[in-house]
Amino acid sequence: MQPINLRSFRKKVSIYKKYFRRYLGKVEKLKPAGLDTLAEKLNAEVWQEVDCLTCANCCKTMTPTFTNKDIRRISAHLNMKPFEFKEKWLKYEKKDKDWVNKKQPCQFLDLSTNMCSIYEVRPDDCAGFPHLTKKKMVDYIHIHQQNISYCPATYKMVEKMMEKIKISGVATIQIFKP
Predict the structure, then answer these.
(1) What's the pLDDT tens digit per position in 79-135?
(2) Element (H, E) at 140
């Protein structure tokens, strides 16, 4: 397993993002048979190649949503009251009605190790990320379309899907491997 090179990853994303999104859109529309089974198989392959601790791009560039249950659990872990935790670390997004981090990278990310300081009580959104093997994968295509820009594991999953599931109307391309 090689460390993630974020510069190389960002370059690949800038070149192929639109193509990958279009491909995923077609997958969502066509709903190929056996997609969930294939996703489980590819998921195992992806995690043989991707080490999150060499990346942490999600923690550096995205924010999870914090449920009330997450807020109670994390604030108790930090010996804070939920309102104190929210006041110190979170902001409320009225549009989506979500509690999210005030800043990025995440305040709980140790940038020297790429490890989460609250890993054992982290938000459910973080625990499930990048949601590669959610059942009914077609119901999560929109999430994968977003996450290919942030997560090398998601990008790798879609890359592998493209090798296995050929979609009519989407040209086969040579994937850039720097």
Answers:
(1) 999 999 999 999 999 999 999 999 999 999 999 999 999 999 999 999 999 998 887
(2) none
Answer whether residue 174 is part of any domain: no
Tally of domains in the chain = 2
Residues near 64 by beta carbon (within 8 Å), at least 6 away in sequence:
100, 101, 106, 122, 123, 125, 126, 129
Name the residue range of residue 90's domain: 65-128
Please give the torsion angle defined by the CA atoms of residues 143, 144, 145 and 151, in that order, rounded to the nearest 10 degrees: 110
* Tokens representing residue 144 in the block: 């994968």
Average pLDDT score over residue span 142-161: 95
Q: Is there a domain that residue 177 lies in?
A: no
> Does residue 1 belong to any structural domain of this protein?
no
Q: Does residue 151 sit within a domain?
A: yes
pLDDT at 75: 98
